[in-house]
Design brief:
Elements: H1 2-34, H2 39-49, H3 51-64, E1 95-101, E2 104-114, E3 117-134, E4 137-154, E5 162-181, E6 186-189, E7 192-196, E8 202-209, E9 214-222, E10 234-235, E11 238-244, E12 249-255, E13 257-260, E14 264-267, H4 271-288, E15 293-304
Antiparallel strand pairs: 1-2, 1-15, 2-3, 3-4, 4-5, 5-8, 5-9, 6-7, 7-13, 8-12, 9-11, 10-15, 11-15, 13-14
Length: about 300
């Protein structure tokens, strides 16, 4: 009886194990059919069967991914604008200044026309008086000069201050000399020797007339009244050159009385004396033909606005 109970219990346990094994096998078989494909297989199937779904999935993945943090480059230091070149347009800038030279003392103004060209104008005043004694004759000379200039400063080199400046010199002048021969002093006129009459001493005047009032001129120099750098405003231009004056002439006029040894005394209006004066004047004028230029040498201080 006891044996039968044991056998029955064993058989019952085997049935339970068998049923459980069959159930697990059944679940495994059906689960293989229902289990989703591996990610690689699913991606392949989705790429073949539904491109739209793949794109949507990719977009969704990109949207769900955290935003990338891009480091911005460090801010560059601001450039020093004070050293940059100014913008050149006709009449966009101007400069004023003073100058001093062989034309006298004056002022000038300039403005840019092109990248390498300025237009410059100026004026000069010159007054001088000087006295001297030569060969027993007292002289006093005075010069009163007024002039104006218009020039184009051309800079052949892009980053240099050397310039060539053709232009026009408008010259209004007055150069006079006064002479006085004290009585008893000797002097020469032309090829003759005279003595000033003590009772009516000789005196006279002389003047120089320039051949032209509008003179072409050409100078070269260094310096730019319109500095091309924003940070520069002051400049010290220097130039040297000449203006063509044409043939200058001198006129001499003498009054009083003169004496000649063995011929007595007479007025300076005597034809022989006047002829000697004309000869002397012609001799000087012939020498002046060799000098038909006026030297130009100037420097100054200018400021650009």
């Amino acid at each position: 009886m006891l044996f039968k109970l044991q056998v029955g219990a064993v058989m019952s346990n085997c049935r339970i194990v068998f049923v459980a094994a069959a159930a697990m096998a059944f679940l495994n078989v059906n689960g293989g059919a229902q289990t989703p494909s591996t990610p690689a297989t699913q991606v392949a199937e989705n790429s073949v069967s539904s491109p739209v779904s793949t794109a949507a999935t990719s977009s969704s993945s990109a949207a769900d991914a955290p935003a990338a943090i891009i480091a911005s480059p460090p801010a560059l230091p601001e450039k020093n604008n004070s050293n940059k070149e100014i913008r050149i347009r006709p009449f966009s800038r101007f400069a004023v200044g003073t100058k001093l030279g062989t034309l006298g003392w004056g002022g000038q103004i300039a403005t840019p026309i092109l990248r390498r060209m300025n237009l410059r104008g100026g004026f000069d005043l010159f007054n001088l008086g000087y006295g001297l004694t030569s060969d027993g004759t007292d002289y006093y000379a005075s010069a009163h000069l007024k002039s104006g200039t218009v020039q184009a400063d051309i800079y052949p080199f892009a980053h240099g201050s050397f310039h060539i400046s053709p232009g026009v010199l408008i010259f209004k002048n007055s150069i006079n000399a006064a002479l006085n021969v004290p009585g008893g002093n000797s002097f020469s006129v032309g090829n003759a020797d005279y003595t000033s009459d003590p009772s009516d001493p000789v005196y006279g005047t002389g003047s120089i007339r320039f051949g032209r009032t509008n003179m072409p001129m050409l100078t070269i120099g260094f310096g730019n009244m319109i500095p091309r750098r924003e940070s520069r405003h002051l400049s010290v231009p220097f130039e040297i050159g000449a203006a063509y004056t044409g043939h200058d002439t001198i006129q001499i006029n003498m009054q009083g009385s003169v004496c000649q040894q063995g011929q007595g005394c007479g007025s300076t209006n005597d034809p022989s004396f006047q002829q000697n004066v004309q000869d002397q004047q012609a001799k000087i004028n012939e020498q002046l033909k060799r000098i038909q230029i006026y030297p130009v040498l100037t420097t100054g201080l200018t400021f650009r606005f």
